[in-house]
């Protein structure tokens, strides 16, 4: 799949292997990222830009519909309509069975 010039949204983009989803930028995509922690989002955007990737980002807890709406509006306003979604965000709830 040729991703050159497309816009990819990557959720949960700042942690460990989740950052692999930002590999779409290395394939030529513009990237919009989100994660819960603002400092991590800013650091990841900075790192990706240093790698030559066109990247924007903002904090967003995807379990909060209002935050998701705000992130979607931000992405659309800043870069347009995404063509790719890498949904890395997730939660774990661990308890004895």
Q: How would you explain this protein's 3D organization?
A:
With 97 residues, this protein is an alpha/beta fold. Helix content is 33%, strand content 21%. It has three helices and four strands. Strands 3-2-1-4 form a four-stranded parallel beta sheet, with helices on both faces. Strand 2, helix 2 (38-50) and strand 3 (55-59) form a beta-alpha-beta unit. The chain is globular. The chain starts with 6 loop residues before the first strand and ends in a 10-residue tail after the last strand. The relative contact order is 0.25.
Please summarize what this structure is.
The protein is α/β, with parallel strands linked by helices.
How is this fold's topology laid out?
Blueprint: E1 7-11, H1 23-26, E2 30-35, H2 38-50, E3 55-59, H3 65-79, E4 84-87
Parallel strand pairs: 1-2, 1-4, 2-3
* Class from secondary-structure proportions: alpha/beta
Computed over alpha carbons, the radius of gyration is 13 Å
Determine the fraction of residues in helical runs and give it as a percent range: 25-40%
What oligomerization state is this entry in?
A: single chain
Q: For the residues shown, what is the average pLDDT?
A: 87
**Straight-line N-to-C gap:** 42 Å
- Order of H and E elements: EHEHEHE
Number of DSSP E strands: 4
Morphology call: globular
Largest sheet: 4 strands, parallel
Q: Could you list the spans in which at least 5 consecutive residues all have pLDDT below 50?
A: none
Question: Strand fraction band?
Answer: 15-25%
How many alpha or pi helices?
A: 3
């Amino acid at each position: 799949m040729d991703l050159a010039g497309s816009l990819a949204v990557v959720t949960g983009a700042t942690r460990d292997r989740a950052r692999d989803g930002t590999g779409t930028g290395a394939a030529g995509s513009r990237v919009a990222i989100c994660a819960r922690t603002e400092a991590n989002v800013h650091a990841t955007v900075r790192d990706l830009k240093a790698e030559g990737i066109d990247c924007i980002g903002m904090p967003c807890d995807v379990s909060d519909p209002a935050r998701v709406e705000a992130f979607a509006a931000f992405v659309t306003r800043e870069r347009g309509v995404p063509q790719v979604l890498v949904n890395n965000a997730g939660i774990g709830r661990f308890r004895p069975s």
